[in-house]
Structure formats: C-alpha cells, structure tokens
Design a protein that fits this description.
Two copies of one chain form a homodimer. Chain A is of the alpha+beta class. Chain A binds a DNA duplex through helix 1 and helix 3.
DNA sequence: ATAAAATTGATAATGATTACTATTATTGAA
DNA sequence: TTCAATAATAGTAATCATTATCAATTTTAT
C-alpha cells in the first residue's frame, strides 16, 4: 500500500470525528481540505483501511455503512430519531463469545451488539 | 390490511423455512406456488408484515436484508463462509437492555446481537 | 351488486456502492 | 537523479438491492 495524501486525510478526518460517519459524510468533510477528491477515492480508501484493520465498518442501519476509528472492543447505540451512533462500553456485555461457546459450542470471531432507542438528546 | 393470496403464501413460505431468507430467496420459493408473483409484491408484503410486527427484519449481515418469522427474543450467528444465519438463544446474552441502562442510562427499545464466525458445517 | 379502498404485476427509478479507465503519483533500483 | 514498475486518483459508468409508480384486478363493506 503506497502513501497517498488522500488516504492520510481521509483517515485523519475519520479519527477527528466521533460521529461514526458514512462515506458520503466523510466525502463532504474531506472536500474541505481536498476540493478535488473523488467519492470513489473515499470509498476505496475506507474499504482498504477496514481490510487492513486500521478502522472498522459498522452496518448500523438498514441503509448506509458507517465507519469507526475506535478499534477497542465496544458496542453501539443508534438513535432511531436522529440516527446518531453512540459508543457503548464493552463492559455492558463482556465475554459474549465465551457465553456463545458455552451455550452452543459455536466459536465466534466477532460479536456485534447494536442497541436501538431514543437518545437523551432527542427525548427533549 | 386486506387479505391477499400472495401475502398468505409469502408468510407461509417464510414460516416453513428456518433459513432466514432474503426477499429474492423468498421470491424464488413463492414462485413455485404462484408463478406470476412479482418481486415487488414480495418486498411490499415482507415490509408490511414487518411493520405490523408479524415478522422481523434482520440487517447488518451483508448487504441484503434477511427475514425472520421467529418473534421470540433471540440473536443470530452468521457463517462468514456459507453466509447461513443461525439462531442463537436469548440466554446467551440476557437482559442486555438492563445492563445498558445500568451502565449508561440509555434506554434501549431493542438489542440486536450478531455473532460472526465459521459454522460447524463449514469447519470440515 | 357495487363503489371505495387495497393489492397486484410489470417496470422505471433510486441510491449506495463498486468497477472501469485514462492519467498522475509513489517507489525502489540503476 | 532518472526511469520503469506499481499503485492511486478523478471522473464516470455500471451494478444491484430496494422502492416508487401506475393501470388493472381483487377485496371488502354497504
């Protein structure tokens, strides 16, 4: 993987944002710094970075894929009103893979948890 | 919601199948009984049934939306090789909403858990 | 029986994502 | 540094799951 300015700025932009942005949200942000960047470049690099394990993809809703720079084990809460995605600490549901193994014998490589509800901000 | 033969057979077909089929899988199955059924009718009815709470949509698998006739609380395991979706009993991770509330104060209306790994069948 | 409302099949449209391609940038060795 | 090989880019076309549209048909309530 060669260096590219675009990839550097896409990654930097993702890391600066706690909002779990989608590809098109990042496209808009990155264009502030690189006005000629292509949407295809954003998608290409996000997929490469996810494949390398530098970032994570989260399929939060039924529609767009969101990206997460936080590699630590954690879960997500999506607000069904504003669609914002919040981090949920791992401690809320630790050792799910172990529980799965003990109950079913299945070996999980990953365990994704997605809570859905209305966030505190939207309740008011 | 009026009665329709198509809806009846779509629902019956989903209930007869433990495979968490997608819309196009159901389309193929339903066409055995109703050769003139339209793909749009399958989508339309699955969405209606899900909206009524008669069936459930499961997303976040891989692009396509799968449908589940099992309304009891339970989770899913997807095999990353054969893409089959298996049910995982609720007991593997009970009371996630309560744990979320106690840790974060957030109120979850739903908690989806998706395990990813290689199923026993694909291991051989 | 009949009119209003719901549903259908066929197909066009949508929207997120990926593929393609000619051009440009990066790299490592001579 | 120069240069050829490789990788990445911008722009755009293509893909593919899903939705929307609409005239025709079916269901339902009166």
């Amino acid at each position: 993987m060669n260096y590219s300015k675009q990839r550097e700025i896409i990654l930097k932009t993702l890391r600066e944002n706690p909002i779990h942005p989608t590809a098109d949200m990042l496209f808009a942000l990155v264009r502030n710094e690189l006005p000629n960047v292509s949407l295809a470049t954003v998608y290409r690099n996000l997929n490469q970075l996810a494949e390398q394990g530098v970032i994570r993809k989260i399929s939060a809703l039924d529609d767009k894929v969101h990206f997460d720079h936080n590699l630590e084990s954690h879960y997500h809460f999506i607000c069904i009103k504003c669609k914002k995605v919040y981090d949920v600490p791992y401690d809320v549901a630790p050792d799910l893979a172990k529980a799965l193994r003990e109950h079913t014998g299945l070996e999980a490589l990953a365990a994704d948890v997605l809570f859905k509800g209305i966030c505190n901000h939207c309740k008011h």
